[in-house]
Every structure is written in structure tokens, then in C-alpha cells.
Amino acid sequence: MASSRPGSAPDSLPDSLREQQLRGVAANPAAPPDVLIRLLDPAARAAWTTLCEERDLPPAVVEAVLAHPEHTVRRAFARNPHADPAQRGRLVHDPDGRVRGTLAGGPRRTHHRIRPLPDEVLETLLTAVDGPGDNDWLTAGEIAQELESSRQIPLSFRLRLPEHPHPVLRARGTDQWKHLTTGQREALLADPDPGVREAAARAHRYLDAEAMEADLPERDCHARAGLLANYPVTRAVVEACLAAGRNHYGLAHNLHTPADAVARLARDPDPEVRNQVAARADLTPGLLAELAEDPDEKVRSRARIQPLPRTWAQCRAIDALIDWDTTYPDPELDADWYAACARSEHPVLRRLAARHPGLPRELVEPLITDPDPEVRHALALHHPLAPPALVLDTFLSRPGERPYLLTLPDLPRTGLGHLLGHEDPEVRALAAADVTLDEPPVRLLSDPEALVRRAAAANPLLPLDVLLPLLEDPEHAEGAAANPGLPAARLHELLDLLGVPAGHVVYGTLDSEDNSPVT
């Protein structure tokens, strides 16, 4: 390797090779805190994303990251899915709006389980106002909008907002108006804060069919579609829509649509409208039986998924799974319903049960060998009791889910020798990292795929006499630098050769008032 003076850039090392080595050291699971903290120097900028966003960090390194003067470092940590939300949440008072906005946006969406931010962090972000000293990258309102769509606000927090001491949060609590009790609505309508009263009155108006009719735009638009799909409707509005052949899909979705209109919509020529009717909770047995024999397969299937009686919350959960392949927490869905879904003959309901992390062991065990592969994969992706063999099977079968599955502790990392010759390079890479292989994965160092070569070079089974030359090879440098078999002294030596200073750049803790670095 080319030599250099300590603290200076290497004289002849190609930039690409240097960056690979830095990223490898940043990813090295055995790198001690003093090595990782060195990477926070500007000379190691190429390692910042790997270090701050893509791995778990020791406490001392977290402190150094939070106090780092470069906003790019703090932003990377703000979106780190491995970091404790309470640690990420310490950036809530960061002086740079870009950092606060990134915190509000949350980790990148490769994860099924986004852990919520602490209540006090949510409260701070949602009640923030722009001050004269703030920069103009993002307004407080824009940051709050980022948070709303980040999945970092738990339902339990939203349901507590109507009684929150802060008026801004009580006003936000009116967004849950349809789910509030009569007492909560009355309290918000009479709230001492005028902003809360105004928000409550606006929300209450949407439950008034006559008021909604007065507000209903005549032209087709998002507002009209939303009102007709979700809020009370007058008989005059329903009849006008049916006569004009407009908004039938929205009316079929609307739980306030009168029963006789629902029956007419069940015979609509558009199968998408009939499918929406088939998903309703208020169908009569006769109408459900009719839809179960509909000429359209999608309508028949939706009608047959769940017998009567149904609740609207149950129907919403099923629709979310069918339409968006997702589920949302709903306080109206109890353990007994999920248990019934787990025992159901219909695979859609068993898939829904498999996604419920609270499903007890006695109901999980039959799902592990369910004849429907989607049930088994849903269990592997969502349930903590999914066995490692099932998680591995899902890794093999669902390439799109691999970034998330690689974060799970139950994904097997050993006993994978039989996969070394797998046709899929991502599978070979997983096997190449196995530390229990019968012999070092030297053969895979010449694999045609870079990620396989990187995994093989990072395997600590490689002896040092094989590993050290790989540090200078562009085909293997990143993986070799990430190899936990490299002693700490070697890692420090490598950083010396890369021109990364040691010892004289130390970041302290965050000042509690303004988050400025303390050195």
C-alpha cells in the first residue's frame, strides 16, 4: 500500500480504492469506538453514510455523531434505522432545519417496523414554530408534514391528543373526529383556545350531511371524491349522483350511504363499484349471497372472504391488506378477531393474522406450515415468533424483502454452506459471510458479483496472509477492510495510511440548549 505522512492524504492511492477502504472500516463490526470516531474527520467523509446511517453504533460514537459540526453527519444518523429512536430524537433541537426534517422523515422505507419517536420528541416537532434565527431550508410546518407521513407517530399518541395540554396538539386531535367520543367532541367544541374550537367546528361540520352538501364542489376533484367517500351524505346528494352516474365508487365505499342505494350499487355495471359494495360491513345476508355469485371473480372473492356479521374496522383491515399489502393498528380490532382470522379457512384472513405481532404461540405454530406461502412469508416478516428456517425461506423466496430481512436477528447467518453455489448472488453473499463454513470462502473471492466478493472478503475465516493483500485490491478492498479479523491496531494503521488524523479531533456531547458541539 502507498505510504503517506500521518495526518495527510495518501500520495498515490486512487480515490476509489481509498473510499472503499474507508467504507469497509466504517462497516467493520469489530472496529472499536476510537477507530470509528476517527472516521468522523472530514478526511474520511466517504465513510459517513456507512458509519452514521447503515449500522448500529457504540454509545461513545453516538455522542460524537450527535455533536458533530457537519449537518450531513447528523442527518445520516437521523435516518439510521438501527439507532434507538430516543437517541435519534435528541436531534429534535438541532439548529439545522435539514437535520430536524430528516429526523421527522424517519428511516428509509426498507423496514416493515418503523419504531415510533418518543412522545416528547413528537410533541416538540408538532408544536414547533419558526423563529427569527431559523434557517430557511424547511419550515416548522413542512417538518410536521414530514413527520405525519413517516409512520413514527403511534396510534396511541394520536388518540391522546384531544386531551393534550398543548392547544396545537388538541387541534390536531380533531383529525380523529370520527373516532372520538361524544364527550371528547363536546369538550373540543367548547375548548378555551379559539384555534382548537375552530378546528373542532370544522371537523364537526364534516359529520353534518347538510353542511357537507353545501360544501360539496360541483366539479370532479379530490375534495369532492373524499367527501362523498367518507362523510355523511343527504338523500338529495345520493340521488343526484346515482341519476348522473357520478361518484358511484365513492358512495359504495361510504358507510353513510343509505341501504337502498347500496342495493342499487351492488348491481352497478362497473365491477369495481360492486367490489366496494362487497367489502361493506352493513350488507344484508341476501345481498352478500348475491355478490358471492357475481360474474366478476374479484367481486366474488371479496364477498366470500368474511361472513356476516362484520365490523367496519375489520373490513378496513382486510381492504388495506388486499389493496396496499399493508396493515394499520386499529383499537377496534381485538385479539379474539385475530384469533378467528388465524383459524379461518380463507387465506387472506390467515395472512392478516400472521401480520399481527401479538398473535400467541399456539396460533402461530399452525401458520408456520400453512399451505398458503403468503401466510408463511407474512409470519416471517411480521411476527417475532417466526422460526429462523421460515425467515431464511422468505429470504430465498422474496428478493424485494431482503433489505429488511437482513436486519432481523432471526435470519440464519450460519449453517449456510449448502447455499454457496446458489444462482442468486444475494443468497451467495449471505452464505459467503457464514463464519461456520468448513473452509474459508476463498473460491468466492473470484465470484463475478461484487457483493459476493465483498462478503467473502469480510469473512473472518480468511487467514491474515490471504486477507491483508486484499486491502490493496479494488475488487476486494471494501470487504477486506470490513473483516472483523483485522486487529484494532491494523485498522488504526490503515487509517494512518489513508491520511485520517488520530487523536486531535474529538467531539463532545450536545449542549442542552442549542446543540452546539462541546469540545
Structure overview:
There is one protein chain. Among the domains are: 1-111 and 117-153 and 462-519, no CATH class; 160-205, no CATH class. Helix 5 packs parallel to helix 7, helix 7 runs parallel beside helix 9 and helix 24 packs parallel to helix 26 (373-382). The chain is built from 33 helices and no strands. The protein is mainly alpha-helical.
Low-confidence stretches: 1-9, 509-519
Number of strands: 0
Radius of gyration, in Å, reads 28 Å
Helix segment tally: 33
Helices and strands: which structural class?
mainly alpha
Helix content: 40-55%
Instruction: Please give the largest β-sheet.
Output: none
Instruction: Give the amount of beta strand, in percent.
Output: under 5%
Query: How would you describe the shape?
Result: globular
Question: Roughly how many Å apart are the termini?
Answer: 34 Å
Nearest-integer average pLDDT: 92
Keywords:
disordered N terminus, mainly alpha, 519 residues, globular
Task: Set down the secondary structure blueprint.
Layout: H1 15-27, H2 33-38, H3 48-53, H4 59-66, H5 71-78, H6 85-88, H7 97-105, H8 119-127, H9 140-148, H10 155-160, H11 167-173, H12 182-189, H13 194-205, H14 209-215, H15 222-230, H16 235-244, H17 248-253, H18 259-265, H19 271-278, H20 285-291, H21 297-305, H22 312-324, H23 335-343, H24 347-354, H25 361-368, H26 373-382, H27 388-397, H28 402-405, H29 425-432, H30 450-457, H31 464-470, H32 477-481, H33 488-497
Helix pairs in contact: 5-7, 7-9, 8-9, 11-13, 19-21, 22-24, 23-24, 24-26, 26-27, 29-30
